[in-house]
Amino acid sequence: MDIFGFLLDPANWSGPDGVPTRLLEHLELSLAAVVAATAIGLPIGLYIGHTGRLANLAINTSNIGRAVPSFALMVALLPIALDLAPVIGYPPALGLSLLPIFIAMTLLAVPPILVNAYAGLRSVDRDLLEAGRGQGLRERQILVDLELPLASSVIAGGFRTATLQVIATATIGAILSGGGLGRYIIDGLSRNQPDRLLAGAILVTGLALAVDGLLAFVQRRLTPRGLRVSREPRAWTELAQVPRGGGEVGGLI
């Protein structure tokens, strides 16, 4: 079993089954699902977070998808996508592979985006919002100028969670003839090629870590500078106040 030999073989980096092609397929499918989930979950999350209306209904409804395993959801959507092909007019092959995967990934990504948007807005100090209303700001201005900047880090955290879940789920989609890096894992199993299987797992893990690192940087940059500055010294002050030698933490210090 030569995993590095597989990864370093130039033949595996070209053609329709090459790593760049599979990586691009994985990213395109994941990005499409996150964009669709954002179009659904973000407006709802912002509405219920700003108004406080229908919060339980929206959150509980969006979380239904979490109760169903991703692969089971794909399989359940498969006959529906095939039956709708002649009605809507898209190719049956699309309903056999891409649509069930895309819909399942989108439903999986909606809850973290929606819930984090709601939680981020509700975490903003209510007194600050009332002060804004007292200054004559309209509700739209309060949302855009006060709530969104202060909640941006929490909202970005929802995108971060959703994106990582989608990247992982796209790997499972290869079972339904989907593309992406998951093809190496499925093909490795079917062909009894452990090097291909493990190389696929390494590639998916590397992609997830790289994307998570990028989104962590974005999340930090979206945090207002005043909040970053105010939080960090407090954390170090609390650490410095731990009695030395008076416990596990103090003993380490």
Shape: globular
CATH topology of the largest domain: MetI-like fold
The end-to-end span amounts to 46 Å
* Largest sheet: number of strands, sense, barrel closure: none
Number of helices: 13
Strand % is under 5%
Question: What's the number of structural domains?
Answer: 2
Question: Average pLDDT across residues?
Answer: 83
* Integer-rounded radius of gyration: 23 Å
Could you give me the name of the CATH homologous superfamily of the largest domain?
MetI-like
Low-confidence parts lasting 5 or more residues at pLDDT below 50? 230-253
Specify the CATH architecture of the largest domain. Answer: Orthogonal Bundle
Order of helices and strands: HHHHHHHHHHHHH
Percent helix: over 70%
Given this structure, which CATH class of the largest domain is correct? Mainly Alpha
Strands, count: 0
Structural class: mainly alpha
Show the helix and strand layout.
Layout: H1 3-8, H2 19-51, H3 55-62, H4 64-67, H5 70-89, H6 92-96, H7 98-122, H8 126-134, H9 139-172, H10 182-190, H11 194-222, H12 225-240, H13 248-252
Helix pairs in contact: 2-7, 2-9, 5-7, 7-9, 8-9, 9-11, 10-11
